[in-house]
Structures are given as structure tokens and as C-alpha cells.
């Protein structure tokens, strides 16, 4: 059991201009839309970051992201800020499906629920609390049961039982708490994840005291960027009211409603290769930042910050007839990234979006690791000064600098 208390009621207070019921968008035919609550604020909500060790023992150091679903609403022209959340009304479970990148075949018959494609070392989720206390003079406690369930990736199928991992978290609200977004980070170690799975958040109605579940729930994101291939999430989170929730039905459950949107989730871990790009020689304004924090970083232009983390990937496959695959991904604040690779992959070249600089990681002599929890690791340093990214530092780079001398963004 892990818990924390929001100690400062004053710090959590924001100017609330309206709370409304809103629908994200019109769903596809045959899907049942679910209402989400939208909060419009005159200023950014107070953001609280809570880091907790999991019951699985904390992993050593922060691994790169294997999934990043964090973009929420932006400032409007009127200077207000809005975000939506899925309330825990009637103690319902709210869950989101995740599909990770891997070489697993197309799920015509369903993905394997037992073959690991990544190793989880920690995850962050966001909870919105909008006037969560029915009695503002007393503190309240929300206990969340969190579970990871394997899933075959097929529409309309159940999550498999038993759960891969479970955790309970207590969130205690101080008296007079009004509005806040709470980023909760939990650590884990060697939790092997299949390609597709569900994360379920279920309020414990017995052990949650003096909280209004209708005013508390997971924050909804806008489905970008998703897995390490920059593919967005599937775009549907789900909700169910007991006894149809995952944790109370043998063999799992199919959620009956499918709202559009994804939950604010960030998963850290490893595929079977982890690369680190050494950019310590760069000034701080040019170094990557933690992409989890872009949305709520009031001191940084999010678009300028994000471009430091976006990279193009060129993968050379030399099995049979050689070919090259290209896609985009993102690095974390340490310059780390992780990818699933097979031994058919001869090299991986990473090129930054903002300046064209590139590094290459070659296949080890004994091949890539096949253990997602003990991946092949490598570090490469970018050659700074190669302004045009052609792999050499020459007169062309000097001319580029000369003609751009004195210019600013």
C-alpha cells in the first residue's frame, strides 16, 4: 500500500470559471459514447508530482519511455486552460488499452498474451480532482486499485486473468482542496509486458472516505505520441461499473462503453535494445528534456522543447534482400531510447529533427539481446559542428554558421 497527502490546500487552489459536461467527439458507428467532464480554468491548475516506490521494489535509475500518451488540452484564445477527465462516478473502473511496438504479427488471430515485448520499470498517470471533498473542512482519502492485464489486442475481447501486476495507492486530500492535477509515478522492476494489455484504475469504495468520486478521475489525453514508433494510442479508454469490472470477473471483462480518447499515461521500461545519445557537450537550451512534463511546463515553449526530443530512425535489415526502414521516435531527458530489434537488424541510425545530427548503433558481434529485462545497451556521442548533418565537419558547415551569424529564433 502506497499513499501520500496533498498538504497545501492553498497551493492547490485555482480559479475555476466553469465545470461542464462535454463529449470528446462523435464515435464510430456502433460505439457507445461516454461523457467526460471538462474543466475550464482562468489559469493553469496546480500540478503535484508524487513519486512512490511500487510493491515490486523500485528499479535502479530511470529507463526510457516505452509509451507516452500525455498531450492534453491547450490554452485557448481567451487565455483559459481546459482539461477533461473521466470521473469515477459510482465507483466505476476506468481502464485504457495499450499496444506497444514490436515485430509481433498482425493480430488477425490476436497477439500473444504471454510473449514479453517490454519490461516495465515505472509508470505515471494523472488524476484530476475538482472540488473532491463533499465536506471541505475534513480531509478525504481516495484508494485506487491499479492492475495490468494481458490482452490479445482484438476488439471486443476480454482482458485475461490473472493480472500481470497490481498496486494500491492512497491519495489523501487536505481540507479545503479545490482543483488539482496530480501526476502519480510508481516504480516497478522486471514486470514483463506483452504487446497488448489493459491498465485498470478502480476506486476502492470501502476504503475511500469523504471524497466525491464524481469529481475525481483519470485525465484524458489527445492520443499522441503513443508507443516508441510515434504511433498514437488506439484512441479508446473504457469504463465499467462493478460487478463487470476487471477485478471482479473471472477471466476478465469486456467493457461495455468505449469513450473516445486515451488516458494520460507514461510507461518507462525497456525493449531488447537501449541506446543513449551523449549530448552533454550541448548547452542546456539545446539538450532534450523530460517529454512527460512538456504539457505542464509554464516556463518553456512546448513546441520548441519537444523538437529537442524528436528523432528519425533508420533501421538497416540485412537478412535476405537488404532493405531500410524509417520511422520517428523520441528520446528522454537523458538522451535514451529503446527499441525492439531482431538479429536481422544490422544497424540503427538516430538523427535529431532540429539539426540533422546523427549517430549509428551497430549490431553486436554476438547479436542483440533477446531478454527485454536485460537489453543490449550502447552509448554514442554526436559530432557537434557537423551543422548540415552529412557526417563530416568541413567548409560547408562554416559557411552555414557564417551566413546565419547573428540570427535568433
* Mean model confidence by pLDDT: 78
**Residues in β-strands, percent:** 35-45%
In total, the number of strands is 25
Low-confidence stretches: 3-33, 54-60, 247-251
What's the shape? globular
Provide a count of the helices.
Answer: 2
Q: Could you give a short account of the major beta sheet? A: 7 strands, mixed
Into which percent range does the helicity of residues fall?
A: under 10%
How many distinct folded domains?
Answer: 2
Distance between the termini: 49 Å
Structural class: mainly beta
Would you list the SSEs in sequence order as H and E? EEEEEEEEEEEEEEEEEEEHEEEEEEH
| Gyration radius, in Å | 22 Å
Question: Can you offer a commentary on this structure?
Answer:
The chain has 409 residues and is mostly beta strands. The protein folds into two domains: 269 residues, no CATH class; 131 residues, no CATH class. 3% of the residues lie in helices and 40% in strands. The strands form six sheets. Strands 4, 5, 8, 11, 13, 15 and 18 form a seven-stranded mixed sheet that branches. The radius of gyration is 22 Å and the shape is globular. The N terminus is likely disordered.
Amino acid at each position: 500500500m502506497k499513499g501520500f497527502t496533498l498538504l497545501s490546500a492553498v497551493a492547490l487552489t485555482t480559479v475555476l470559471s466553469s465545470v461542464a459536461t462535454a463529449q470528446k467527439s462523435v464515435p464510430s458507428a456502433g460505439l457507445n459514447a461516454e461523457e467526460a467532464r471538462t474543466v475550464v480554468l482562468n489559469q493553469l491548475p496546480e500540478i503535484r508530482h508524487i513519486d512512490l516506490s511500487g510493491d515490486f521494489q523500485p528499479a535502479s535509475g530511470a529507463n526510457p519511455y516505452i509509451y507516452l500518451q500525455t498531450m492534453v488540452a491547450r490554452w485557448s484564445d481567451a487565455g483559459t486552460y481546459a482539461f477533461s477527465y473521466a470521473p469515477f462516478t459510482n465507483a466505476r473502473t476506468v481502464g485504457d488499452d495499450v499496444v506497444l511496438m514490436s515485430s509481433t504479427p498482425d493480430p488477425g488471430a490476436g497477439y500473444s498474451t504471454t510473449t514479453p515485448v517490454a519490461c516495465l520499470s515505472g509508470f505515471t498517470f494523472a488524476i484530476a480532482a475538482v472540488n473532491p471533498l463533499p465536506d471541505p473542512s475534513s480531509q478525504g482519502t481516495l484508494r485506487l486499485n491499479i492492475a495490468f492485464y494481458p490482452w490479445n489486442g482484438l476488439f471486443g475481447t476480454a482482458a485475461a486473468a490473472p493480472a500481470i501486476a497490481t498496486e494500491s495507492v492512497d491519495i489523501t486530500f487536505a481540507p479545503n482542496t479545490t482543483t488539482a492535477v496530480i501526476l502519480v509515478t510508481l516504480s516497478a522492476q522486471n514486470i514483463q509486458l506483452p504487446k497488448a494489455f489493459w491498465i485498470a484504475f478502480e476506486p476502492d469504495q470501502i476504503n475511500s472516505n469523504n471524497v466525491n468520486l464524481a469529481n475525481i478521475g483519470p485525465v484524458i489525453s489527445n492520443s499522441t505520441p503513443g508507443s516508441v514508433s510515434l504511433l498514437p494510442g488506439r484512441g479508446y479508454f473504457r469504463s465499467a461499473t462493478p460487478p463487470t469490472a476487471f477485478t471482479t470477473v473471472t477471466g476478465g471483462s469486456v467493457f461495455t462503453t468505449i469513450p473516445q480518447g486515451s488516458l494520460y499515461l507514461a510507461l518507462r521500461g525497456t525493449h531488447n535494445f537501449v541506446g543513449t545519445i551523449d549530448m552533454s557537450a550541448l548547452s542546456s537550451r539545446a539538450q532534450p528534456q523530460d517529454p512527460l512534463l512538456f504539457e505542464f511546463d509554464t516556463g518553456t515553449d512546448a513546441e520548441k522543447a519537444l523538437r529537442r526530443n524528436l528523432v528519425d530512425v533508420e533501421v538497416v535489415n540485412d537478412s535476405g534482400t537488404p532493405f531500410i526502414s524509417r520511422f520517428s521516435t523520441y528520446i528522454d531527458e537523458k538522451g535514451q531510447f529503446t527499441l525492439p530489434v531482431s538479429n536481422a537488424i544490422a544497424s540503427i541510425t538516430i538523427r535529431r529533427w532540429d539539426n540533422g545530427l546523427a549517430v549509428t548503433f551497430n549490431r553486436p558481434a554476438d547479436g542483440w539481446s533477446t531478454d527485454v529485462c536485460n537489453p543490449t545497451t550502447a552509448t554514442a556521442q554526436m559530432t557537434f559542428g557537423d551543422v548540415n548533418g552529412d557526417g563530416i565537419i568541413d567548409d560547408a558547415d562554416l559557411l552555414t554558421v557564417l551566413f546565419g551569424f547573428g540570427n535568433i529564433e
